[in-house]
Amino acid sequence: MGQERRVEIGVIGAGHLGKFHIECINRIEGLSLAGFYDIDPARSKEISEKYEVPAFETVSALLDRVEAICIVTPTVTHYDLAVQAIEAGKHVFVEKPLSDFPDTSRKLADKIASMNLVGRVGHVERYNPAFIAAQNMGIDKPVFIEAHRLAPFNVRGMDVPVIMDLMIHDIDLVLSMVDSEVDHIEANGVGVAGRSADICNARITFKNDTVANLTASRISLKQMRKLRLFQRDQYMAIDFLNHEVQVVKLLHAEPADLLTMKLDLPDGTRWIAADNPAVEKHNAIELELREFKDAILHKSDKGVTFDQGAKAVEVASRIMDQIMKHEK
C-alpha cells in the first residue's frame, strides 16, 4: 500500500484558539501546515518564530498555497473569509459558530455543497471525552435535557451575545441528540457587562415533545459545563469540564455486575443501578481536525457539517429573537 497523501492546510487567525489549531495540525499525520495569516503583524512574528511556521502577508497568498483552511477568527469575519476560501476551491473548517446570522450560515452551507467541498464547524464539545463516553453508553430518544454552561467574565467573546458565544455549544449538542424539528422556543436574557445578553435561559420544545432547558452565563463566579438528560429507564449526567459521566438505569432484571437498589413498583419489581463509565482522555480539537482530514481524503461523513452548523445558528437566532421580544 502506498503512503497516504498529505493535505496542505493553513490557519487564518493565530490568537488564543488559533495557536491550538497550529499545535494540533503539527501533530496530525496526513496534515502539512503550510502557514498562517493573522491581522496583527506583531503576533504573526511571534507565532511564526515560536512554531517555526511561515506567516503570510495576505489571506489570498495563504489560500494560493493550500488545499484546506481553518478559520479561527472573530465570528463577524467568518462569512467573508469562508466565502473567499470556498470561491478559491478550498475545503473549510470554521470555528463555531459558522457565522453570526442564520441567512449567512445557510448561504455558506449551500455554497460549499454546490462546490462539492468539505465544510466542518468547530463545535468542539461533540468531541469532549465525556460526551463520547456517554454516547457509547447509549443516548437514545431523550425526553428532557438540561444544560448549564457558566463561565467567568472574559473580554474575548464579547463580540457576540452569550447565546452565540457559549449556549451555541449546547444547542448543537441537543440538536445532535434529538431527531426532531424545533416546535417552540421561550427565552429570557439579561445584558450585564455589555449591551447584548450575558445571561440567558432558553426552553426549546421539539415536535416529538422532547424539551431542552439551557442556561448560559459569562459573568459567573465559577466555571460549569454540565448536561443532564433523561430517557426511558435512564438518566445521564455529563460533566464536560471534569470529563465525568454518571449513568443511572432502571432495570427489569437484577444485574450481576452492578450495585443496585430494589424497587417494588405497582407494575412489578425494578432495580436502580448507577454506573460511572470510564472516560478515555484525548485532545478534542485534534480529534475534530483529524476527522476534517479524513473527510477530505476519504469522504468521511463524520464531523459537524456546515448544514448542521447552520441549524445551530438558526436555533440560536430564534432564541435571541425571543429575548428581544421580552426587552421591548
Number of strands: 14
Fill in the CATH topology of the largest domain: Dihydrodipicolinate Reductase, domain 2
Radius of gyration (Å): 21 Å
Distance between the termini: 65 Å
Biggest sheet architecture: 9 strands, mixed
CATH class of the largest domain: Alpha Beta
In CATH, the architecture of the largest domain is: 2-Layer Sandwich
Kindly report the spatial arrangement of strands forming the biggest sheet.
7-8-9-6-10-11-12-14-13
Roughly what fraction of the amino acids lie in strands?
Answer: 25-35%
Low-confidence stretches: none
Sequence of secondary-structure elements: EHEHHEHEHEHEHEEEEEEEEHH
Q: What does this protein look like?
A:
It is a single chain. By secondary structure, this protein is of the alpha/beta class. The chain folds into two domains: 7-125 and 285-314, Rossmann fold, CATH 3.40.50; 127-279, Dihydrodipicolinate Reductase, domain 2 (2-Layer Sandwich). It is 35% helix and 28% strand. It has a nine-stranded mixed sheet with strand order 7-8-9-6-10-11-12-14-13. It has a five-stranded parallel sheet with strand order 2-1-3-4-5, sandwiched between helices. The longest helix is centred in the last third of the chain and has 22 residues, at 306-327. It is globular, with a radius of gyration of 21 Å. 40% of the residues are buried.
How would the blueprint of this fold be written?
Blueprint: E1 7-12, H1 16-27, E2 31-37, H2 41-51, H3 59-63, E3 68-71, H4 78-87, E4 91-95, H5 102-114, E5 119-122, H6 129-138, E6 144-150, H7 162-177, E7 182-190, E8 199-206, E9 211-217, E10 224-231, E11 234-239, E12 244-251, E13 260-265, E14 268-275, H8 284-298, H9 306-327
Parallel strand pairs: 1-2, 1-3, 3-4, 4-5, 6-9
Antiparallel strand pairs: 6-10, 7-8, 8-9, 10-11, 11-12, 12-14, 13-14
